[in-house]
UniProtKB/TrEMBL annotation:
EC number: 3.1.3.3
Record Gene3D superfamilies: HAD superfamily/HAD-like, Phosphoserine phosphatase, domain 2
GO cellular component: cytoplasm
Function recorded in the entry: Catalyzes the last irreversible step in the biosynthesis of L-serine from carbohydrates, the dephosphorylation of O-phospho-L-serine to L-serine. L-serine can then be used in protein synthesis, to produce other amino acids, in nucleotide metabolism or in glutathione synthesis, or can be racemized to D-serine, a neuromodulator. May also act on O-phospho-D-serine.
Family: Belongs to the HAD-like hydrolase superfamily. SerB family.
Pathway: Amino-acid biosynthesis; L-serine biosynthesis; L-serine from 3-phospho-D-glycerate: step 3/3
Protein name in the entry: Phosphoserine phosphatase
Amino acid sequence: MASLLEMKEIFRNADAVCFDVDSTVIREEGIDELAKFCGVGDAVAEMTRRAMGGTVTFKAALTARLGLIRPSYEQVQKLISDNPPQLTPGIRELVSSLHQRGVQVFLVSGGFQSIVEHVALQLNIPTANVFANRLKFYFNGEYAGFDETQPTAESGGKGKVITHLKEQFHFKKVVMIGDGATDMEACPPADCFIGFGGNVIRKQVKEKAKWYITHFDELLKELEER
């Protein structure tokens, strides 16, 4: 296992940095916001807590939560326009700094493609660099499930995305940054995991992550020391 010093060296020389989105790049959990918007907020928030704590499989939790919410296409679009995701302080500057250094930035999320693409747009991240879950709708806009073939739809999916990125782009050093259990388990294949507790602190992640931060300024400072 890499020491903290070695991890900082990996981050400063990374070819690619992958960010989780909910409670990391943005302040809220997209699925919880969607649930509130659709009137089933409390029940779904409890399911999210269990999923992030690592006590149920990700796909089982996602299926159950979406089965409760059953969001229509119109509701998803209205959520984005009426309650757009709030960027976490410092993320815009950090992504911009990584881009200036020629580092590829990816958003790897168990959240929903339509919401994550909206976030990517604000951060000048190409939509091709977004890996997230796709909601399915019937022709009349009613909820029709989600694409279960996406790697991000199951536990271990973020690691599969990183393996794919390494094979496709021949990246030598990939960093994963996130708040949850599904982010931490993506290392390996990621070369370094940085736990983020700036929006919510997940006890399991804080205890196990060798490098744990609560503000993106800490990473900006690391880059500036290079």
